[in-house]
UniProtKB/TrEMBL annotation:
Keywords: NAD, Oxidoreductase. This is SDR family NAD(P)-dependent oxidoreductase. Belongs to the short-chain dehydrogenases/reductases (SDR) family. It comes from Micromonospora profundi. It comes from the Bacteria. Residues 14-197 form the Ketoreductase domain. GO terms for molecular function: oxidoreductase activity. CDD domains: SDR_c.
């Protein structure tokens, strides 16, 4: 890497797809990636908030487009990946963040709810990887960052279905790193701890005291921010992480230490 490249915006010239981009970690990460020079395709299911967010970033001078889609629908995923290439000409990186949560003991979760969270969090991640790799393999390079959770690294009571999906995302990532590394494609996964998002607000309601107990057991004694997760994603998507693949990187204030 030359001195000029080191001093430039670390994602300058790169096109990154951000899936699950309209709020929370996805939106905060998109802001970081845009500030670091990336051109962005933003994806979420609901157009209104997504369009408003895209307008926020374009008004700030960033190169941004958006597309709606459901990650559990293979046609939708293929469509928004193709739309990225049509708009920007290439796909250098992807941040796969679309997910839903599901509170309750395993014996309390209904079969339809279990099927839906698996479809979004696990099948959706797999579909995104599959379609992103379809483009990246033609380019001979790419970087994919998936989002799991510290709940994907250990167990606890009350969110079993959600935690099962986040364990699966780590498994998908590790396998993808082996499958696609020979093609020049890096695949890593971030495992956030409690992070200030709309999803965390739902967790506080579903499991009273659960977040506070987790923070009390965290060495840094605080809830994380989406910007902190985004900064980690920006590093993994950049050439500065060129020899990292298959990594599970906790962003959890030391909880998993």
């Amino acid at each position: 890497m030359t001195d000029a490249q080191t001093n430039a915006a670390p994602l300058s010239g790169k096109v990154v797809l951000v899936v699950g981009a309209s709020a929370g970690i996805g939106a905060d990460t998109a802001r970081v990636l845009a500030a670091d020079g990336a051109a962005l395709m933003l994806v979420a299911r609901t157009e209104g908030p997504l369009a408003a967010f895209a307008t926020e970033l374009t008004s700030a001078g960033h190169d941004v487009a958006y597309a709606t889609g459901d990650v559990s629908d293979a046609r939708d995923v293929a469509r928004f990946v193709d739309a990225t290439v049509e708009r920007f000409g290439r796909l250098d990186g992807a941040f796969n963040n679309a997910a839903m949560t599901q509170a309750g003991r395993l014996d309390e979760v209904s079969e339809p709810d279990f099927d839906r969270i698996m479809a979004v969090n696990v099948k959706g991640t797999w579909l995104c990887i599959r379609e992103e790799v379809r483009v990246m393999r033609r380019q001979g390079a790419g970087s994919i960052v998936n989002v799991s959770s510290i709940g994907g690294m250990r167990g606890s009571s009350g969110m079993g279905a959600y935690q099962a999906t986040k364990h699966a995302v780590i498994g998908l990532t590790r396998t993808a790193a082996h499958d696609f590394g020979p093609l020049g494609i890096r695949v890593n996964v971030i495992a956030p701890g409690p992070t200030e998002t709309p999803m965390l607000a739902k967790t506080r309601l579903a499991i009273p005291g659960g977040v506070e107990a987790r923070v009390a057991a965290t060495p840094l004694r605080k809830v994380g921010t989406g910007t902190e997760v985004g900064a980690t994603a920006a590093f993994l998507l950049s050439d500065r992480a060129s020899h990292l693949s298959g990594v599970v990187l906790p962003v959890d204030g030391g909880f998993s230490a």
